[in-house]
Design a protein that fits this description.
- The chain has 335 residues and is α/β, with parallel strands linked by helices.
- The chain has a single domain, classed as Aldolase class I (TIM Barrel).
- It has helices at residues 3-13, 41-46, 49-61, 102-105, 128-131, 141-153, 168-178, 197-202, 219-225, 232-247, 275-286, 316-329; strands at residues 90-97, 110-115, 137-138, 159-162, 187-191, 209-212, 251-253, 256-266, 291-295, 333-334.
- Strands 1, 2, 3, 4, 5, 6, 7, 8, 9 and 10 form a ten-stranded mixed β-sheet that branches.
- It is globular.
- It starts with a helix and ends with a strand.
């Protein structure tokens, strides 16, 4: 992107115009036709706010409390906490991806960057080689920024940050490098939902689309299956409410999401995940218009066979009741 075009994008993001040359992209397909789909992070970059937020996030890593694990280690000095990450970061894979929800993937794909390691570590993780074992390659901020730009130029609708929680300072540093070079598609924050409110508030206006899991509505299962996170339900419910406050309900242009919240929930055998309680919570606390993906793809992976009844897939009856509970709760946008 030329300097002139970059300035136009920044002016548009701040509600100004430059010779009328930059307007909002228009949407259709039941979408907000008059919505400005310019990512909010562009205005923050122009104002110097991204740099300020980044500094605050690095400070948190000195006694790491980026997530509710609150390890307290000095990652900037090379110490590692629960997530097995120090002051470096690894990327396992990156590229266009079409297996997410249609409003995320569309025709062009979602530009997925799968970060190594994790702050939650589910016992049944299907990507355990990356999240638990830490497979991946140490990457620089310049390389990550280049990945962002390459994915946008290949036609991806967004940048999909997979398992980003423990690495947000690195992500913001790369974003600051990429924006002056032309990055201008939405950022998707694709996480377990186990988030710190303080960290999320530093992401306000940076993230366009939140795509959290709400894995369990039973704290005992959460503790058992995530190496000790008995506070998962508490922190995740607060985090998702904060996400909704920041970005609102899902907005689309031409059938592709450009802003908002989409919550995922995996149906598990014998209602282990507490699906009935989850959908009622969504309807009551987030609103029946909330977009929810109730997924039936659970399969016993990694250590799942050590925890009955997770050694098998959900039955047709398990999934039938999940759908019935969602309808009974009054949800209007569940998939």
């Amino acid at each position: 992107m030329t300097r002139r075009r970059f300035l136009k994008v920044c002016l548009a993001a701040m509600g100004l115009t430059a010779c009328g040359a930059w307007g909002s992209r228009r949407g259709s397909s039941g979408s907000q036709d008059d919505a400005d789909t310019t990512p909010s992070y562009i205005a923050l970059a122009a104002q110097g706010e991204l740099e300020r937020r980044e500094e605050q996030l690095w400070e948190k890593m000195e006694h790491c409390d980026l997530c509710p694990r609150n390890c307290g280690v000095n990652r900037l000095a090379g110490e590692k906490g629960f997530c097995s990450s120090d002051d470096t970061f690894k990327v396992a894979t990156h590229g266009p991806h079409w297996a997410e929800e249609l409003v995320i993937s569309g025709r062009g794909g979602t530009g997925t960057i799968f970060f190594s390691d994790c702050n939650f570590l589910c016992a049944f993780c299907k990507n355990w080689q990356i999240s638990h074992r830490g497979d991946g390659r140490v990457t620089s901020h310049e390389e990550l920024a280049s990945m962002f730009l390459t994915l946008e130029r290949s036609g991806c609708h967004n940048i999909n940050l997979e398992t980003p929680t423990h690495l947000v300072p690195h992500i913001i540093r790369a974003l600051r490098i990429a924006v002056p070079q032309g990055l201008s598609i939405p950022l998707v924050y694709n996480s377990s939902g186990y988030e710190s409110l303080e960290t999320l508030r530093l992401l306000d206006g940076i993230i366009d689309i939140y795509l959290p899991d709400f894995k369990f509505f039973d704290s005992s299962w959460a503790s058992t299956l995530s190496q000790g996170a008995p506070d998962y339900v508490h922190h995740t419910s607060l985090a998702i409410k904060e996400m909704l406050r920041q970005v609102g309900h899902l907005q689309q242009a031409r059938g592709i999401a450009f802003r908002g919240l989409l919550v995922r929930h995996l149906v598990m055998p014998q209602n282990t995940a507490g699906t009935g309680d989850f959908v009622r919570w969504v309807a009551e606390e987030l609103g029946p218009e909330t977009h929810v993906n109730i997924m039936g793809e659970y399969a016993p992976q990694h250590m799942a066979r050590d925890f009955s009844p997770l050694e098998r897939r959900p039955s047709a009856e398990d999934f039938h009741w999940a759908m019935q509970w969602a309808r009974d709760a009054g949800l209007r946008n569940f998939h």
